[in-house]
Write a structure and sequence with these properties.
With 1018 residues, the chain is α+β, with helices and mostly antiparallel strands. Helix content is 43%, strand content 24%. A hairpin with a 5-residue loop joins β13 (335-343) and β14 (349-360). Mean pLDDT is 79; it is low at 218-224.
Amino acid sequence: MHVLMLEDSVTDALILKKMLSSPPETFRVRHLTTLTEALASLDAESFDLILLDLFLPDSGGIETFHRTHAAAPYTPIIVLTSANDEALAIEAVRHGAQDYLLKSDVAPAVLQRAMKYAVERQRLVDDLHQHVKETTVLHRVAQLLVEPEQETLDVLQRVVKLIPPAFQYPDSAGARITVGEYCVFSHAADVFPERSLQERFLTADHREGLLEVFYDHLQPLAFQGPFLEEEIQIVRTLAEMVTSFFDRRHALREIRNQRAIFQGVLQNLPVGVWITDADGRFVDVNDAGVAIWAGKIDVGIDGYGQFKAWWTGSGERIAGEDWAAARAIRKGETSLNELINIEAFDGTRKTILNSAIPIYDDHGDLQRVVVVNQEVTDLKRAQDAARDAAEQRLAILNALPANIALLNGEGEIIAVNEGWRQFLRSNQFFDDRSGKGQNFLEIFQRATHMGETEAPFVAMGIRAVLRREVPDFVIEYSFPAPDGTCWFRLSAGPLDTSPGAVVMYLDISARKTAEEDLRRQKELLQTIFDTIPVMIATFNKDGRLEWLNRECERVFGWPMEVIGQIDILQEIYPDAEYRKLVYDFVRTASKEWKDFKSLTRDGRLLTTSWAIVRLSNGSTLCIGQDLTHRRLLEEQLMQAQKMEGIGRLAGGVAHDFNNLLSAILGYSEFAVASLDEADPLRADIEQIRKAGERAADLTRQLLAFARRQIVEPRTLDLNELISATSRLLRRLIGEDIELVILQEADLLRVRVDPGHFEQVLVNLAVNARDAMPEGGKLCIETKNVQLDHTYEEQYGRSRSGPHVLVEVADTGVGMPEDVAAHAFEPFYTTKEVGKGTGLGLSTCYGIVKQAEGDIWIASKPGAGTAIRIYLPAVPSVVAAAESRALEEKVKGGDECILLVEDEPLVREMVRKALTRLGYQVLVADCGTEALRVAADVLDKIDLLLTDIVMPHMGGKEVADKLLEQRPGLKVLFMSGYTEDAVIRKRVQDEGIAFLSKPFTARALGRKVREVLDKPVTS
């Protein structure tokens, strides 16, 4: 795996490289220290993964991630930093980071696994993008190729423009289609043969075509060939689609030619031919028909009675419903050569032969009726007319775009049209007689090509028509032919003038192919709609819900099958007025996204966003997203930002207050030391000092809430800490909850940061309060315990020896086992939206683990919850030694100390305390002044004692500048609080000397002596 590492710390880079050199994985690492170098490297070469430190010499924070991600948008990025900042982590992940890891928490196996998962997730996303591109291009090409009215060259030009986006390098890919007189290509014309992909095809009119896809010479190739296997399949599919396109165009040209021939024949026939629609209105007529009637006819089926005509045999007037055309329309009858007398529109009387034949579509619906009129004036002309009518009838049959055969009463073929003959000759089914004289029923009874059931069924249907048992018979079936399978529609009807039947075949292969193409397109669209993670629903033009995709079913819980049985919208939006807003939104067909509160089948309330698209058929397409989880994360982020602001305010107050408290505690200590034991002022000043210490406890609690304090583990008695915190806890839980504190005497001491443990108690008390809305009891108990193998068997942890147990138990609602199993996970909460962040218990877990302890939860529904914390006890010898050290007299010295403090009260108190201990003290009120004071005497200064938070130049910057000039200089930081996460991390992990405000003169002297006596490390 080729990895780009952006890390300005040489030490951290060496550690990371060592982690990546551990088996079983092999990594090739390129290490850069600035963002400028990284952007240049990303422009010149590709990487499988980027390990990114957000704080670089030339860029810092989330801006570093944005610029790196913009330079390599398809390369997975893992943020690997020392900044333990939740808001920064959330923002990085939301903008595309695969992971956010802290350097202090990363082990080699964890880092390698995170890198493998990141690369695999990016690969899956790239595969999905490629699949969507290919599917979209195929869908759009298919839409182009089914447009019947577009010019062929224009369609092909649009197709080759669509092809490059389906490939992995669309900006460098080109396409070309060559067939006959057509040759169209996309933008890239300069190609190399070894970089092209070709697929040949053959169209229905026997023209060979070639579809090519290629890359231009500017595209760098870092692999053997430029084409993926999916892209090769795309080319094959596109070639098949182009083939089908030319086949359809060929079929359409044939149909147009047949129509032109029909019109030519129709106008040149010596008989009048009228063609009506299914309502009896005449839609076409030749000149001979107009001449017979001395004008055109424009009536419907109910208007035939106005024509003046009589039967030649009886002389009776022909009623409107007795006309051949009327019977063909109403009864489906075929009438041939009915001899009648008519009176034309100009009053001329004539004798004509009248015929009418109904024409049906593929679904068996009447489409047209062909009416043929032949004028006769005497018997000879009638005889000639009869002969001519037969010839004309045959000409019409030959001109019709169908294969027609006439059968006698026994089923023998007595006549066929030209279409029938051409079909049989081309498929070599019969000789030149085209089947005449053969018994049609026997042919089907012997046939095997139609399957075991279709052939006998056809014979049975035609036999029923010959026997006049049914008025007609229609069937569709496939028929094997030398050039492939054909589909036909066979229809049979009885002859009116003699026993027999007319059998007509229509080639419906094109329609079947179109239906199959349509079915495939529907399947493709259905697959897309059911796969994409977007909700889709359709409404008909009347506003009724018609269809839901699977994402809709998954989100709302309502299956597609219940549509029509219940009103799903009424279930999702039960409020009538709110539902009316939804209907109005659907009717407006607004493409703007709008949010709605929606109810699922199982009663969950979701936040969904919808946009509406109006379709050409009047239906409405609704596209939606489930934004519930996103809105929850946004609310949690806002809550975190609000708490961050409160924390900053609390930290700022604590900073100023701690300066005042430092002065109060220091000067009160000076005053007490200068007074005799019997002096009455001594007791008063002692009270001032105690009040200052209580105020210091209060500011420490504020900093614990703000999470701005330096982690300073101390050896302490938890009984004293819990007692001091109890007043705050009682205010938090309210008067309706009883607080009970049970403490074991002689409790062993533990080593933990007091502010952090106060935060644990506060978080647990707040959770207990929320679990007891009707009131209850909260019990905090401490005891000494000895852990042995029983603990290991119960919890699976290998811990032994003396521990202190702190149990916080409530009488609240409790929680089931599956919920308790996730209780310590970050952002996991059972509270209502907006009532909790899910970080309380996870914070407690981190604090206890940092103190090398264990935390467990025991809970049952209705039986309350108990949180048990086990902290290792500090050996009595160590605790006693620390107590003695605190009681010993503070030692002074004659070293030179540079004091930097911007607060005058604190600065003077510290100077006075250090001077009393014998130290030489140089004083500066700001960072700039400190550099000026140290300029001439830096070699004589033994210790830099500096406040961290100062205007213009902070203590860290002062220390860095002086350490550059004198590397061995010892430094002691002091501050009431710090926002600098780097300082807090270094104090905790690297042992940087730090003194937390407020402090007493005694504590100051002890800490200064400790730092001065500590040996200098490289």
